[in-house]
Design goal:
This protein is about 40% helix and about 25% strand. It contains 12 helices and 15 strands. The longest helix is centred in the first third of the chain and has 18 residues.
């Protein structure tokens, strides 16, 4: 009986999970790029960004990345063209080890870029901030001072659920790593920089390219990688270069965009709004303009359509003979328990259990 009851509860739990389906995640994405005012030493846009829907043939996967180039756009353009390809080609990606695959793709991209023979490339480098949405998870990989920021909403408030770490020389752990690698740090025009043997300085401490740093332990391509399970509380993801983050905090960027999202403003508009917001603040603070690139992903949670595959699976389970037999036994038991019990009649019980003695007593009484 215990086995029958336990099997019954297994079946009922399966029915519940089949009939109560979770909401499904859908997302839309937009991007916007704005070049800074041209300067003699920087006459062109060095940022690059890319969005790939149906990534790797998966309609529920999205790849997005921003690359903030310096020393020319060559490294950023190389990343835009190749990093996602190296990710798909990674043996770890094919095994489903996304985090390991992201690390491999960054290092592979750096190695391949260093092999390019164009003399213009030797002093070019780029940050790399990558987001991959797959199987309901968000994977973030970051090397440099571009940033990804994820928002969550609860009790009517928007907060920062997660933001990547900016790899700058002002970061204590990064400075410690640079000094341990015998790198040189100088303050130039009130800004701390990592200095190469060619006296070229960088404020970021990680990235792809920068081949003029002969000590490969100083500017490294190794990204920080994070895996996040997406929930209904998550509503926006921003990927942006430091031209935006230098004047706006993650929270100040996410809060207004979340209010626009409620008014059904789409991704391209949200990215454009963010760049305009940064431009206004730059003007108010009288700061030098920088190239700005932003990608905004908005998450929407929808009620799912009926799952025909689960319906068929349920039918198969109910047709199994063992389960049908268990249910039949259970219902028979319940039916027996529900029937009224007969009243306790001692005389009737005596008549049925001791018929011979009762007959002798009756005969003796008649003879008297």
């Amino acid at each position: 009986m215990k086995r029958t009851l336990s099997l019954f509860f297994v079946l009922t739990s399966f029915l519940s999970s089949s009939l109560i389906a979770e909401k499904t995640l859908s997302f839309s994405c937009g991007q916007y790029e704005k070049a800074s005012k041209p300067y003699p030493h920087k006459p062109f846009m060095e940022d690059r960004s890319i969005v790939i829907k149906n990534f790797g043939g998966d309609k529920n996967a999205l790849f997005a990345a921003v690359y903030d180039g310096h020393g020319g756009p060559y490294a950023a353009e190389f990343c835009k063209q190749h990093l996602h390809t190296y990710l798909l080609q990674s043996s770890e990606y094919k095994k489903g080890n996304i985090e390991a695959a992201l690390k491999e793709s960054f290092i592979k991209t750096n190695e391949e870029f260093s092999k390019t023979k164009d003399p213009s490339n030797w002093k070019s480098g780029t940050t790399a901030t990558v987001a991959l949405i797959k199987n309901g998870f968000l994977f973030l990989a970051n090397a440099g001072d571009s940033r990804a920021a994820l928002s969550q909403e609860g009790e009517g408030m928007v907060t920062v659920a997660f933001e990547t770490i900016d790899h700058k020389i002002t970061n204590k752990s990064e400075k410690k790593r640079i000094v341990a690698a015998k790198g040189t740090v100088l303050t130039i025009y009130k800004i701390k920089r990592v200095i190469s043997s060619n006296f070229i300085g960088l404020t970021c401490t990680r990235g792809i390219g920068d081949n003029y740093f002969t000590n490969t332990k100083i500017i490294i391509p190794n990204p920080d990688v994070t895996k996040i399970k997406l929930t209904e509380n998550h509503n926006l993801l921003i990927l942006a270069t430091d031209g935006i983050w230098d004047v706006i905090t993650s929270l100040d960027a996410l809060r207004p965009l979340s209010s626009f999202k409620k008014n059904l403003v789409f991704g391209d508009c949200l990215a454009h709004i963010l760049v305009i917001q940064a431009e206004v603040i730059q003007a108010e603070q009288n700061k030098a303009t920088d190239d700005m690139s932003a990608i905004v992903v908005r998450f929407d949670w929808k009620e799912p359509e009926p799952d025909l595959d689960k319906t068929q699976e349920l039918k198969k389970k109910l047709s199994r003979s063992e389960e049908k037999k268990a249910l039949k036994n259970l219902f028979t038991h319940l039916e027996t328990q529900s029937q009224p019990k007969p009243k306790n009649n001692k005389k009737r019980k005596l008549d049925s259990t001791k018929p011979k003695k009762q007959a002798k007593r009756v005969k003796k009484s008649n003879s008297q």
